[in-house]
Amino acid sequence: MDWHIHKAQTLHCELEVPGDKSISHRAVMLASLAQGSCVIRGFLPGEDCLSTMEAFRALGVKIERLAPTTLVIHGTCGKFHAPAGDLDCGNSGTTMRLLSGLLAAQPFESRLVGDASLSKRPMKRVIEPLARMGAHIEAETLPDRPPLRVHGGSLKAIDYVSPVASAQVKSAILLAGLFAEGTTSVSEPNLSRDHTERMFEYFGIAVKRSGLRASVEGGQRPQPRDFRVPGDISSAAFWIVAAAVRPGWRLRLKQVGLNPSRTGLLGILARMGARVREFEHSNLGEPIGTLEIEGAALKATRIEGKEIPNVIDELPILAVAAALAEGTTIIADAAELRVKETDRLAAIASHLKAMGVNVVEHPDGLEITGRKSLQGATLDSLGDHRIAMAFAIAGLFADSETVITGTECVNTSYPGFYEVLQKVLAHRLGADPLVISQEPEEAVEV
User: CA angle, corner 290, sides to 284 and 291, nearest 5?
Assistant: First the structure.
């Protein structure tokens, strides 16, 4: 399906976004490891998270889907069954990397496969530390690309110093550490997302955290607890930037995750000139609250160093903000973007150039010189959901029609995005604020 986008008149709305993708993955995994049943509400029914759910079903975990976003998961206390066939991770690197950590300790062999995009993504970053723990993992495509064949067995604890700040690497090792003898530790050069550590603590697993180091003692299992997944701030980021780049445009986001390791986008937009306010309402495992954004004439900035792990998924839409800001924005230390669903640095550079923006591409980043408005263009998603959505938002500020092709990939993280976009485009100046809520969940009796 192609998306056809024209220039928006205004953005003045209140909305909710689907459940957080990173947290939905981990909620399924920890509930599957638990010593009893858990109800997970707010689960993201996107293709990536459904790949995780189906993988655990294939491992013998009973998962009931009472509503699109409500799961009842009957944990197996970490004892899984050998799958009858390959475990299909689809497009999800999170599924493949974190599952590798769990399967490394199981007394059977597993084979993890993915789609064409996932099969090009590097896995050495988890294979190497898990091998040090005693796991035997083979990458069937050289040098370190999927499919992965995992020969499970007994593991030993390690003290690992990661060369990259990666929540997936850290999480794979800590999950394996639950099955290892002794204390497993992971240190990072910069702090990556801490969803795994927070969810370990919420589900009753003791985690020691000290600066850039996280440690877990082997032999622990999650306690059965119900959990609500907050709205995904990475999905909200597209609407946040849309509101931030124009004076007078306003957005109110409800029930969104406000984990400090995920809110770097807000600080960057604030220093560019946007008005950002946070209101935290609850903190049951993950902080959840309301955001209010008011647009302004943005100024260029630098995004680099320790900020990058915190905004790695938001860099495509931040690049759109830079394209509409006054001055030249520098993005550096972001070579990680070259090994995502596509080479995101190359995709951002080529697509912004097609929209009339002056962009200089570097091995680890971009220089983007902003302009007041963009040119319409026909742009390929390249199979990357964040590229598709970022440039759909860019189309709201283009003087002629923008067409995004290959948009099916958006279902991995934000089913319903285009429908929300169409409502935004239909909203008129002077009308009452647009209100868009997620579909209500069915009642759950467990």
Answer: 135
Nearest alpha-carbon partner for 226 in 27, 79, 68, 26: 27
- Quote the percentage of the chain above a pLDDT of 70: 98
- Name the residue with tokens 């100046």: 429
* Four-way CATH pick for 3-19+231-436: 3.40.640.10, 3.65.10.10, 3.90.226.10, 3.40.50.10860: 3.65.10.10
User: Residue 32 in contact with residue 38, Cβ under 8 Å?
Assistant: no
Amino acid at 286: E
324 residue type, one letter: L
CB 16 within 8 A of CB 255: yes
Pairwise CA distance, residues 326 & 317, whole Å:
16
DSSP-assigned states of every residue in 42-61: S---SHHHHHHHHHHHHTT-
Provide the edge-to-edge strand list for the sheet that holds 250-257. 275-284, 286-294, 250-257, 12-15, 434-436
Q: How far is CA 260 from CA 63, 89, 191, 257, in A?
A: 31, 28, 11, 9
Tell me the two tokens of residue 108. Answer: 């059977």
Quickly tell me which residue has 């690992």 as its tokens.
Answer: 160
Q: Which two tokens stand for residue 37?
A: 């049943």
From its phi and psi, is residue 398 left (phi > 0), alpha (psi between -120 and 50) or beta? beta
Which of 20, 88, 115, 313 is flagged as catalytic? 313
* Phi, then psi, of 44 in degrees rounded to 5: -80, 115
Among 138-147, 183-192, 312-321, the range scoring the smallest mean pLDDT is 138-147
Element (H, E) at 369: strand 365-369
> For residue range 385-429, what is the model confidence (pLDDT) as tens digits?
999 999 999 999 999 999 999 999 999 999 999 999 999 999 887
pLDDT above 60 for 440? no
Domain with CATH 3.65.10.10 in the chain: 3-19+231-436, 21-212
Place of tokens 């976009």: 421
pTM for this entry? 0.91
- Name residue, tokens 């960057």: 268
Tokens in use for 265? 């986008």
Element (H, E) at 73: strand 70-74
> Which CATH code for domain 21-212?
3.65.10.10
Q: Integer distance in angstroms from the first to the last C-alpha of the chain?
A: 39
The bridge status of strand 358-362 relative to strand 365-369 is antiparallel
Say how far apart CA 137 and CA 152 lie, in whole Å: 8
Q: What does the alpha-carbon distance between residue 238 and residue 231 come to, in Å, rounded to a whole number?
A: 13
Is 313 tagged catalytic?
Answer: yes
